[in-house]
Specification:
The protein has five helices and seven strands; from the N terminus they run H-E-E-E-H-H-E-E-E-H-H-E. This is Bacterial SCP orthologue domain-containing protein. It comes from Actinocorallia aurantiaca.
Length: 178
Amino acid sequence: MEGAEHHAAASLAEAPFQLMITEPAGVTGLQWLDVGHGHLERSHSTGIFLPVRAPACNVVRMNPSMEAVSRAVSAYAAGERPERAVEKAAVKHLLGLLVQRAPGKSVEVRIPPYAAVQCVEGTRHTRGTPPNVVETDARTFVGLATGALAWADTVSDGRVHATGTRADLSELLPIVTL
């Protein structure tokens, strides 16, 4: 049995072809990929996928934060509330992506009790309550960030409180699609 495992990994390493791996849209941080007889694992130092022995199951692991987003969306779709740690990780990851998409300090986005960030270029706010604030709950934010909810609908029905001239985030959403 050991010879078969060694042979599978060796044949994968000695394959006369190159494998180009692209991450699916909206998924970043793949750590390993199943390729049938073994799997390829991303090197921490170079980021290149290298062949290694087969894992116990055929699962593609994602970035833990994207996994949290996926788990939160699944729980919401099932009419359940995700675990607090999962919901928090999903919110923080999506807020981080929002800041990457729209860096700046003119709008404060608040998702109590988990996090608040400043984003969008413009006049910088330094003290007190900022003039441009967006506040909503975690479920609504995850829905907006993943495209499950529309900005206009959530603002009109009161699930999102947006004040200020720069507080319209509709151009920045969705952040990811699942």
